[in-house]
Description:
The protein is an alpha+beta fold and 178 residues long. It is built from eight helices and four strands, in the order ααααααβαβββα. Helix 1 packs antiparallel against helix 2 (25-39), helix 1 (2-22) packs across helix 6 and helix 2 (25-39) packs antiparallel against helix 6 (90-104).
Amino acid sequence: MAELITVARPYAEAVFRLAKQEGKLEQWSEVLANLAAIARDETALAVVADPKYSAAQLQQLLVGLLGGNVGAQVENFIAVVLENRRFAALPDVAELFESLKVAEEGEVKAVIASAFPLNDAQVAQLQSLLASELKRKVEAEVQVDADLIGGVTVTVGDLVIDASVRGKLTALATSLKS
Length: 178
């Protein structure tokens, strides 16, 4: 899966620059979300992979699925994706685009995994601490992971803060082996 993300990154960044330049972040966000939904469909993947359909035919089909009147830039984007055989990467393109969009808006998404359910006050406190540390507004997604034993892990992009009992035990075991 990491390979598709690597392939998707230049497309997401290029579309993001274009959308930002033209003030069309929301429109592109919607288009990419729709294309990602189409690309997740097994039938769509099979049709795109079928050599009996040309890139132009597939482009017309995708434009039709998007509602027809999408504009020349969207049509060009679809053509480039199809010509370079990157259709399967569209869900990752959409996800990376959304990450760039959220970052542009001064907001980051944090995934907070806790061993036990957190109440609203605890989530708000963690968000406040993260916001002051990261100098951005933090949108939190909270998950319960009993395997942590106790504590929390926080993931913000590539940053992982492991304040869990499991993490401490793993670190202790590693240091004892050395």
